[in-house]
Amino acid sequence: MEAHPSRDARPRRTTGVVSGIVAAVAGLASAQLAAAAGRPEASPVTAVGGAVVDLTPVAVREWAIRLFGTSDKLVLGLGILVVLAAVAVGTGLLAVRHLPAALVVTGGFGLVGALAALSRPEASWRDALPSLVGALVSAGVLYLLVTAGRRTRPAGAAPGASDGAGSMDRRRFGRLVVAVLAASAGVGLGAQRLGAHGSADATASRARFRLPRPTVPAPPVPAGADLRVPGLGPFLTPNQDFYRVDTALVVPRVDAETWRLRIHGEGVTRPLELDLRQLLARPVVEHDITLTCVSNEVGGPYAGNARWLGVRLGDLLREAGVRPPSQGGPADQLVARSVDGMTIGTPVEAVMDGRAALLAVGMNGRPLPFAHGFPVRMVVPGLYGYVSACKWLAELRLTTFAAYDAYWVRRSWAQQAQVKTQARIDTPRSYADLSPGPVAVAGVAWAQHRGIDRVQVRVDGGPWQEARLGTADGADTWRQWVWPWQATAGRHTLEVRATDGTGAVQTGVRTGTVPDGATGWHAVDVDVRALG
């Protein structure tokens, strides 16, 4: 009897789909193991994700940050896995029709992963190995499964008879699938344990690390700085709530006991190479500083205030013989490089003009969290993070803005970016339903290194009203504010603006974040329900 084409096609498609997915799982597990044995950043998903971030247009990246917030990296990783699953299914379907072509496609994707890994900062030829190992394992598994899932020829059939004749060796195929998945699970567990072992030293070093007592402690937060208005966050942002915006898909875990910092470059007469103990042998100071990301839109959440502990960066540069440009120094840019290769360029003048520019080791009385740069990061008040706040610091190199463009500058952002004056309404939230009567309108305002002198609020475009400010904690932190509003029934628009310590009033002109930070007044719309 002649085989029914549709009945013959269904098991072949099933074989292809299962084979493709199982082969991809085996390849990924093997690649993860190879990466765990070398550099976690070299795993295919991480490497491709990093390359995608680098190649994504600024407008698209900003849209992703607005849409997904700090979950953008998770969404990117899941998106890569979804694409990989779709490719695996397609490759499996191709394999049951033309196996050599499917094996070529598998090798091609391994090559893409290898090239992505090699494109990452600080990459070496070894970083290509995880993707190549994964592709080799995936191709081998695909070949075994597809050949095992083919139908066998009936006895006496001609050697050239179609593989579609006879019966499928389903038992052998099923046993192979189970065996490969079990092996992949074992390899994945081994990769996880190896990775955990690789970061165990870093975790243990952080657990052992004790913050030094500051030579110059910060004074207590002034009474009245925290207005304690419901809906308004605390004056000092808890570490777990502090915003995080960076390109690291895998948070670097650096062993504090093997960490080193190198300071060199133009105008450095005494190059330095320090470990953590040597760095902290210098005077340690405490300072309250608000940080802001340049990706923060008007009214956005990417600002936070913390008490930082560290060594003054300006003093360290002077120790290395550096002079600022205003004193004849040849370098006007300080390029900080992190352990994962990120580069951030900061004006030398800004870190040596007396402000509290720090190499920080502590945050709110605890060692830096890994996600915020343990063991050492830069903190420079008055500048957006992309030109000042290098995490996981490994190197400081003196150069010029004319000679070198740091990572974000090569992606359309300005070389230098002072934080712009901003005020934000935290309560009530947009589209909140309120009752008529007294409503506390409250939020924060910041203009780091200039300070905030005044905050004003208005309703429905009416006259500006003076808000009450929380007590100032220096010029480098935000100030909380509150304005009592007697709400009346209807829909209303609340707007806020601030005046900085120089007397300059925040502009109401709306601009986007690119190239050097957003401007405009934050506004919220609320509904006040009529009583009865």
| Series of secondary-structure elements, N-terminal to C-terminal | HHHHHHHEEHEEHEEHEEEEEEEEEEEEE
User: Helix segment count?
Assistant: 10
Give the number of DSSP strands: 19
Overall shape: it is globular
Distance between the termini: 82 Å
Biggest sheet layout: 5 strands, mixed
Q: What portion of residues is helical?
A: 25-40%
Task: Show unreliable segments.
Answer: 152-167
Structural class: alpha+beta
Describe the structure.
It is a single chain. The longest helix has 39 residues. The protein has 532 residues and is α+β, with helices and mostly antiparallel strands. About 3% of the residues have low confidence. Helix 1 packs across helix 4 and helix 5 packs antiparallel against helix 6. It has ten helices and 19 strands. A hairpin with a 4-residue loop joins strand 5 and strand 6. Helices cover 33% and strands 22% of the residues. Strands 2-1-10-5-6 form a five-stranded mixed beta sheet. Strands 3, 4, 7, 8 and 9 form a five-stranded antiparallel beta sheet that branches.
